[in-house]
Amino acid sequence: MALSKRKKAMYMRYAMYVVSIAFLVAVILFIDWERLGNAMFRWNIVKEQFPDILTKAAKNTVVFTILGFAGGLSFGLLFALMRLSSIRAYRWFAATYIEIFRGIPLLVTLLILGFGIPIATGWKWPNPYLQGAIPLSLVASAYMAETIRAGIEAVPKGQMEAARSLGMSYTRAMTTIIIPQALRIIVPPLTNEFVLLIKDTSLISVLGVTAATKDLARFGRDGVNQTANATPLIVAGLVYLAMTLPLTQLVAWMERKTKAMSR
Amino acid sequence: MSSDVVVSLQDLHKSFGSNHVLRGIDLEVTRGEVVCIIGPSGSGKSTLLRCVNMLETPSSGTITVLGRELTDIDCDIDEARSKIGMVFQSFNLFPHMTALENVSVSQRKVLKRNAKEAEETSRSLLARVGLQDKENSYPAQLSGGQQQRVAIARALAMNPDVMLFDEATSALDPELVGDVLSVMQALAQEGMTMLVVTHEMGFAKNVADRVVFMDAGVIVERGSPQQVIGAPKEERTQSFLSSVLNH
């Protein structure tokens, strides 16, 4: 037992490497690659997915995401300002809204607003895109409101005081001094929000789709049904990654940059 | 009330919850006058100064600046504030703007000057505080003393009738205090009306026309610097000054 702490840590590290490599080798050796490839990655099926998976399905996913994000950002900003308002009724309303829409799963909200409301009132959604995008943006706005509020509150109080002392109105001070500074703080978390939205659009297809409004996930599922093979889902997953990975890398880069700036 | 009264405070009270910070302040500042407010921390001097431009709303009493009663609910506070310059202990420069933009922004957004005119004014103001070569620097690239001088130029950009200084040198490294004080002194000599909360007894002694000593929310003693700092009558003033000066 003459091993020092550091020596022990060193041997431990070697052991970890050995175990990891052994595990990898085992996976490579014991998996039936041919069977896996046949079930999940058949080149001829991969090729069949194109170009529709990009020109139709991915396009719909992007449309839902952008509509949801634009709506979520506008309402989110509104609710954030209401949360910070000096008027108690506004604060109360925004807080209740945020708690409700963050507390209910998106799937349930989609079903209530997409199906429940039309059944209850006889009113019909005028457009299948809005039917999916509006519930999505209502939920997104609840999350974004909290992000934006935190960003505004992170701007020191003295900034507002200095702006008001120069004769700026509250609104003017907000738009020229506070919100530009808050934006720098919230762009990384908002980008993460965007990535979450890309993935959340996959739930919209529970509301039913036409050939024209199919999103990526639904396109993949329908592909599985047609081909009796999992390849379409794998391709859909890869297309999701092609959209989300650049964005998460962008967030990581922005965070590194802010860290370097605040040093 | 004579027309050259710039700031007039009458029976001003301010409470934060149960904490009674200002307990009946009466004070007048006339045009061109430099009034220094001294006193121990917690005496209410910063709160008093922050009331003058309504950053704090007084609990009772009236504040009149340039004949406008700020405590009147019909008073346009934004308009009134644009004529009252404020310099903060922590500078509060806008970190996302260069020195030039910091000085220009209120001219553009409040006075609605065009970009060229605002920039020219800002350049001459930066030159006035000795920072003509720093117009493109961001606050983070400036020393504390330089930041505070930009903040003074920013306040001057509105052509204020009175300048308020809230412990403008307290956050500075000792060797940077002098630059800021000499800018303030130059302003005083040019005839700017100034209300200065400060711990710099030398500045109060040499620059102030009048010194006000505050303690526990009231004005204990007021008069010329020779009187208040040189030969204080009140015991509280004496003990404060001896603790400040004798170390």
Automatic annotation (TrEMBL), chain A:
<dbReference type="InterPro" id="IPR000515">
    <property type="entry name" value="MetI-like"/>
</dbReference>
<keyword id="KW-0812">Transmembrane</keyword>
<dbReference type="GO" id="GO:0043190">
    <property type="term" value="C:ATP-binding cassette (ABC) transporter complex"/>
</dbReference>
<keyword id="KW-0813">Transport</keyword>
<dbReference type="GO" id="GO:0006865">
    <property type="term" value="P:amino acid transport"/>
</dbReference>
<comment type="similarity">
    <text>Belongs to the binding-protein-dependent transport system permease family. HisMQ subfamily.</text>
</comment>
<dbReference type="InterPro" id="IPR043429">
    <property type="entry name" value="ArtM/GltK/GlnP/TcyL/YhdX-like"/>
</dbReference>
<dbReference type="Pfam" id="PF00528">
    <property type="entry name" value="BPD_transp_1"/>
</dbReference>
<keyword id="KW-0472">Membrane</keyword>
<keyword id="KW-0029">Amino-acid transport</keyword>
<feature type="transmembrane region" description="Helical">
    <location>
        <begin position="233"/>
        <end position="253"/>
    </location>
</feature>
<keyword id="KW-1133">Transmembrane helix</keyword>
<feature type="domain" description="ABC transmembrane type-1">
    <location>
        <begin position="58"/>
        <end position="251"/>
    </location>
</feature>
<protein>
    <submittedName>
        <fullName>ABC transporter permease</fullName>
    </submittedName>
</protein>
<feature type="transmembrane region" description="Helical">
    <location>
        <begin position="12"/>
        <end position="31"/>
    </location>
</feature>
<feature type="transmembrane region" description="Helical">
    <location>
        <begin position="103"/>
        <end position="123"/>
    </location>
</feature>
<keyword id="KW-1003">Cell membrane</keyword>
<feature type="transmembrane region" description="Helical">
    <location>
        <begin position="62"/>
        <end position="82"/>
    </location>
</feature>
<dbReference type="InterPro" id="IPR035906">
    <property type="entry name" value="MetI-like_sf"/>
</dbReference>
<dbReference type="GO" id="GO:0022857">
    <property type="term" value="F:transmembrane transporter activity"/>
</dbReference>
<dbReference type="InterPro" id="IPR010065">
    <property type="entry name" value="AA_ABC_transptr_permease_3TM"/>
</dbReference>
